[in-house]
Amino acid sequence: MLQSTLIEAARAGAAEILRYFQGTFRVDNKEGINNLVTEADHASEKAILSVIRNAYPDHMILAEESGKSHQTDEYKWVVDPIDGTVNFAHGIPLNAVSIGIEKNGEIIMGVVYNPHLQEMFFAEKGIGAFLNDKPIRVSNEKKVIKSCLVTGFPYIYLDQPNGPLEVFARFVRKGVPVRRIGSAAIDLCWVAAGRFDGFYEHKLEPWDSAAGSLIVTEAGGMITNHQGNEFSIYQHAVLASNGWIHDELVGVLNNTHEL
Ligand code: IPD
Ligand code: CA
Ligand code: CA
Hints:
The chain is α+β, with helices and mostly antiparallel strands. Helix content is 32%, strand content 25%. Helix 1 runs antiparallel to helix 2 and helix 5 runs parallel beside helix 6. The protein is globular and about 50 Å long. One calcium ion binds next to strand 5 and helix 6.
């Protein structure tokens, strides 16, 4: 029941994404430069929330555009109606609905659905991770120097030691490919599917990583903060990998290991 509502909610949001994608829509700016929100973000979120509220009126919801609902329940749905809004606004078909379900503080189920590629990633705690119902697995790469990585940059640049550009340069100078897809939820799922060996980002929000974090771990991968410590969707710095290269990535992120 939980699973079918989750999938139905993701499909409802994705239908709004596709409805607006080819046409015209209003675009507004949020905090920062080019931090966009479109009519489609609101429409997708409305459709998702309506499915959840219909099925589970008591469950709590944390959604990017409308914030936190006031219910307090053991269940909390963490919703990003469009992850990759800048891509969406530019007609780039790399964006997705992302919804994670937390039970008593632990993510137990998640879905990331990119309707343009018709890729539905799903995971359930203890059961596994799937792409369009087929099990997925992280890669087997054991060395960072041979890896293909992905990252993202915050809307407001973080000028700090080991900040986004500094770390990016560290990899690129040594010839390690670091892609920039523009959707953290998709980045995490593509690590889970073995397309990327690792992903890091400095400033994510809970809705960016809620579903993807479980999809990575259920696919056999690892997710922590940049120090290699226990992951929480409520802290900003995220590092995900196939597990094999994790310690080495922590070293590069903190500048304690040279490639
Ligand atoms: C953004 C995307 C992007 C990441 C940003 C996020 P949004 O989410 O996930 O890849 O680099 O940090 O804020 O704004 O498109 O939902
Ligand atoms: Ca997002
Ligand atoms: Ca979003």
